[in-house]
């Protein structure tokens, strides 16, 4: 089944070109089922790239998903045309009285800042607090995961001596979790961050579970015991060239970055990277949507106590 998105969204033509089924709003309105309502708070400056990456992952499911994009009103994005935001994004004041089956909070290039110094931190806290009562299940990715764990549970972030960049092996700790159905015991995932969690901080909080980790990259995936929140430090949504573009960007800035680990063949940046995380990414997002959103969300989304599907 398809994802339901506006016809003119730039990602639409890209996904159709990849033979991914997207549905027009007209056709979706004439289907006799309720689509899942998923809100994506996109904090990345590269809005269109991130939209396409996430929509690609959400499309691999037998469910109809209506996706809406949210932006912060207290921060003006300078990396995307304002007309794109006007046409495809909403703000919190326009959705605060609605309910959503799922929500994704993306990463943001803000690792070097204290949370309280981020110009939209107060607004983000308001959104995360609202999500506790108006969103059935939320997935936080990278900086969004750091922000979510800090806000909801007081888990601190720690600066790394060097930026973590590359494709690392990750180990499933809780193999019985529906999130990992179809996963191998070891899966590969891109990591790109200058901060980290510490496992002992996670394990000290009874309301949290550490369910995947990496010997080299540290904590990979954490969930709340009530399955309302998932915190993912890796980037299984990344395209084949995302780390390459980040590396080239940092080179151009004169940062002298390390070559991403386990990414370029023979560690040679002139060679095309080999993707080893695509199937794990499809499984992660598909399992999250199916088992933690669709299977348990109330059919009457405006009535959280209503019957479950």
CATH architecture: 3-Layer(aba) Sandwich
- The helix-strand sequence is EHEHEHEHEHEHEHEEHEEEHH
What structural class results from the helix and strand content? alpha/beta
The tally of beta strands, per DSSP, is 12
**Mean pLDDT score, rounded?**
88
Tertiary shape: globular
Q: Roughly what percent helix?
A: 25-40%
β content, as a range?
15-25%
Q: Look up the CATH topology.
A: Rossmann fold
Low-confidence spans: pLDDT under 50, at least 5 residues? none
How large is the radius of gyration?
Answer: 19 Å
Number of helices: 10
**Oligomeric nature of the chains:** single chain
Distance between the termini: 18 Å
Determine the CATH superfamily: Class I glutamine amidotransferase (GATase) domain
Integer tally of domains: 1
């Amino acid at each position: 089944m398809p994802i339901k998105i506006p016809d003119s969204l730039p990602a639409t033509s890209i996904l159709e070109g990849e033979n991914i089924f997207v549905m027009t709003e007209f056709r979706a309105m004439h289907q006799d089922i309720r689509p899942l309502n998923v809100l994506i708070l996109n904090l990345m400056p590269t809005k269109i790239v991130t939209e396409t990456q996430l929509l690609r992952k959400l499309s691999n499911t037998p469910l109809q998903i209506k996706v809406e994009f949210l932006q912060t009103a207290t921060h003006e994005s300078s990396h995307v045309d304002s007309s794109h935001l006007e046409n495809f994004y909403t703000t919190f004041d326009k959705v605060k009285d609605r309910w959503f089956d799922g929500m994704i909070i993306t990463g943001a290039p803000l690792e070097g800042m204290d949370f309280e110094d981020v110009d939209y931190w107060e607004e983000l806290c308001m959104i995360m607090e609202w999500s506790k009562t108006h969103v059935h299940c939320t997935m936080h990715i990278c900086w969004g995961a750091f922000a979510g764990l800090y806000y909801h549970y007081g888990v601190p972030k720690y600066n790394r001596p060097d930026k973590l960049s590359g494709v690392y092996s990750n180990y499933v700790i809780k193999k019985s979790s529906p999130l990992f159905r179809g996963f191998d015991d070891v899966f590969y995932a891109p990591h790109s961050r200058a901060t980290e969690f510490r496992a002992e901080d996670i394990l000290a909080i009874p309301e949290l579970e550490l369910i995947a980790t990496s010997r080299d990259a540290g904590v990979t995936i954490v969930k709340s015991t009530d399955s309302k929140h998932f915190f993912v430090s890796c980037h299984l949504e990344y395209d084949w060239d995302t780390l390459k573009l980040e590396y080239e960007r940092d080179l151009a800035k004169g940062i002298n970055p390390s070559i991403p680990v386990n990414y370029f063949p023979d560690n040679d940046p002139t060679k095309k990277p080999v993707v080893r995380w695509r199937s794990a990414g499809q499984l992660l997002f598909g399992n999250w949507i199916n088992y933690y959103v669709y299977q348990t969300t109330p059919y009457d989304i405006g009535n959280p106590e209503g019957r479950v599907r």
